[in-house]
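pipeline stage [seq->struct] | target=NhaP-type Na+/H+ or K+/H+ antiporter | organism=Guptibacillus hwajinpoensis | residues=622
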Amino acid sequence: MVDSILFNIMLVGALGIFSQWIAWRFHLPAIVVMSIIGLLVGPVFGLIHPDEVFGGLFDPFVSIAVAIILFEGSLNLDFREIKGLGRPVGRIVTIGAFLAWLLGSLSAHYVAGLSWGVAFVIGGLFIVTGPTVILPLLRQAKLKPRPAKILKWEGIIVDPLGALLAVFAFEIIKFLKVEEATATALLIFFLGSLFATLFGFLCGRGIGWMFEKGYVPEFLKSPVVFAVVIMCFTVSDEITHETGLLAVTAMGITLANMHISSIDDMRHFKENISVLLISTIFIMLTASLSVDTLLEIFHWQIIAFVLLMLFVVRPLSIWLSTIGTDLSWQEKTLVGWIAPRGIVALTVAGYFASVLLDAGFEDAKILMSLTFALVFATVVVHGFSIRWTAEKLGLASEGQPGVVIVGGSTFSTALSKTLTELKIPVLITDSSWQRLITTRKAGVPFYRGEILSEQTEYHLDLTPYEYMLAATELDSYNALVCTTFVPEIGRNNLFQLSLRNDRGDDLEELVHTIGGRVAFKEGATWESLNRKVESGYVFRKTNITQQYTFDKYLDESDEEIIMLFLKKPSGTLEFFAHDSQTRAEAGDVIVSLMPPSKEFNRIREKLEKQRNGDKNGKTKDE
């Protein structure tokens, strides 16, 4: 074991980000990869033991990280997102959450053998699913809109509520357990909680007001939010112990519902800082587990508790809470099965394990074993079964990974029709009915609305789409769209039309800093592509085989042909772009835009060759 604090900080950070990269590269649940790596470097090989190395800094660091993670969850709790989602979501996040807390607490007491105090604390915590876990699974599984929307918003709404419920349960039970506890002491606790809520609200309003009035420059917005979150947590926690989590959650909810213009900047902040903290903290927590903790996971009580949570508590709470709604039995079954617990559950459980032990709850020592068993089991089982379950229930999106085309035009419509012929889902979005005329006439799926509007994410489900092409006549808008969707789609799958260079400006340098990858070949601008389609250019689909190779295809092509994309045998797409050396292989289909005369000449030459072959055959026979 290496005792250097600096080395341990470097190692846990590097391992956390490396785990995230491995998960992204091989399409695995990140929490599973982090769990395995943390266990390998910690209890298995004993390379690091962060709890021993960091000593007194370990718990404060975890506490601050938990506060930031909770702030992240509450920052997504925009009350506008609850409206229009229907009765099912409302029932699940209220009645369903209460039932899950009650049934989970009963299971923790009667099956896992925990005392009532610890059982009700952990029961409240285990109702969370968490957006950091459920959203990657939804992108991977490609569910139909209804179940995907329910699971998505349940994760966002219940995530901070579960931790809050655990905090309240802990504080109330702790006061009730102390023999000398009086009504005055309990009143002081509630006043402290009220102060934390009010303080968090004021911090949120203050930050929002300063951002709206321009009192904070752009480059300081993220650091200011980071500093205020830590201050909000620390001050509240020092005044009344354990209320810091309540304060930062109230702060996040306040900011989320102020609808200020800088909300995206704060979300960008949490997507950077929180990912780093989540990765680091998870490695630290799993590496700090002892071998005894891991062995406790295989105790029959813990195994029985996990099975009960998987097959009884979650399904029963969903089925009971959605009685009288319009959910089908298939949707109830899928939603009742999928409930992965994630990083928030494990980090907050580690936090409560120490404070419960300090409060005299000796049975809290198995809390980490219990939580890790549930987290690991749910993420693995649900992560690898969600797609299969959805397909069996008929709730998986059909077809190949889809394409979103931003900007209605003649070219966009023609390209969409070609994608549809290849059985690839496609959607054209534009804020103008006028620009969608050709799209509507062609019967291509479309969405009329501003793709950059916050309201769009409430009404438009982009889960089935893995690629985006910004194809408007405005270069700056195309770049802005691609830059905005980098976190959701990834730059490799974001494309924009070639930048116009009418004034001779060196605009090509723009794509190196912002925007998506420049699609197709040089000169394939919005004007040129639409002009070609309107003049009769056609979309040609060419099969590449062992005999008809990509090199032969290139030899037969001329400068007027524009290669658009490849469709792989697996169904994935690969767009031709300026910054890539895309090559087709046997089994691929190349879609290109070519002049009609070329197509007619190829057909005529092919027919002539066939006729000549028939004549030659007859001559030989004669």
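stage status: PASS
auto-comment: The chain has 25 helices and ten strands. The longest helix spans residues 145-177.
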